[in-house]
Design goal:
The structure holds two protein chains of two kinds. Chain A contains no helices and twelve strands. Chain A is mainly β. The mean pLDDT of chain B is about 95. Classes of the chains: A mainly beta, B mainly beta. At the A-B interface, strand 6, strand 10 and strand 11 of A face strand 4, strand 5 and strand 8 of B.
Chain lengths: ~120, ~110
């Protein structure tokens, strides 16, 4: 069965510092990979996604992620975080079904920003 | 345009009662998904509908859970004889239904079973 592991439950970084959130997946074929963000009291918002092609994908809010097949990883990065980036981040793999796909989520990483 | 809407936003019920949660997807989206977010289990898939195909119910945790989608639009998730472990935020999402399309999430319904 597909699975997603986010090893870091909670990360704290200073405003302006760089950020990397880790994500490892288990999937038999080429995965559809996603990063979502959930701000306090808000719904889930898609940051970026990977299906094929260039393994470095750009997303919204200055985020990027790199797909590494050899490491089964899809880590999320941002060069310089802002206080507004404080939120919970979820990595997910899409499991194909009949014309659609259900998402299998990691446990999430809560990001705290120090001023 | 309007996003995915869910109602009610909060629901408090007593153990053993039935509850219905509603989801209005984005107009034109053929796929509709239900997920559950709880402290112990994280975000987990429950069920999805795609067009006129039979729904994928593989994530429903027990036969107390059921869902329907009427007219290819609005969906209702029903939980019968609620238990305390059903307390969670129930999230609905919709998409254009092709693999890889973004799923747009609603704000969720917070269910508390006393």
């Amino acid at each position: 069965a597909q699975s997603v592991t986010q090893p870091d439950i909670h990360i704290t970084v200073s405003e302006g510092a760089s950020l990397e959130l880790r994500c490892n997946y288990s999937y038999g074929a080429t995965p559809y990979l996603f990063w979502y963000v959930q701000s306090p009291g808000q719904g889930l918002q898609l940051l970026l996604k990977y299906f094929s092609g260039d393994t470095l994908v750009q997303g919204i809010k200055g985020f990027e992620a790199e797909f590494k097949r050899s490491q089964s990883s899809f880590n999320l990065r941002k060069p310089s975080v802002h206080w507004s980036d404080a939120a919970e981040y979820f990595c997910a793999v899409g499991e194909l079904g009949r014309g659609a796909q259900k998402l299998v989520f990691g446990q999430g990483t809560r990001l705290t920003i120090n001023p | 345009g309007a996003g995915v809407s869910q109602s009610p936003s909060n629901k408090v019920t007593e153990k053993g009662k039935d509850v219905e949660l509603r989801c209005d997807p984005i107009s034109g989206h053929t796929a509709l998904y239900w997920y559950r977010q709880s402290l112990g289990q994280g975000l987990e898939f429950l069920i999805y509908f795609q067009g006129n195909s039979a729904p994928d119910k593989s994530g429903l945790p027990s036969d107390r859970f059921s869902a329907e989608r009427t007219g290819g639009s609005v969906s209702t998730l029903t939980i019968q004889r609620t238990q305390q472990e059903d307390s969670a935020v129930y999230l609905c999402a919709s998409s254009l239904g092709r693999a890889g399309n973004e799923q747009f999430f609603g704000p969720g319904t917070r269910l508390t079973v006393l």
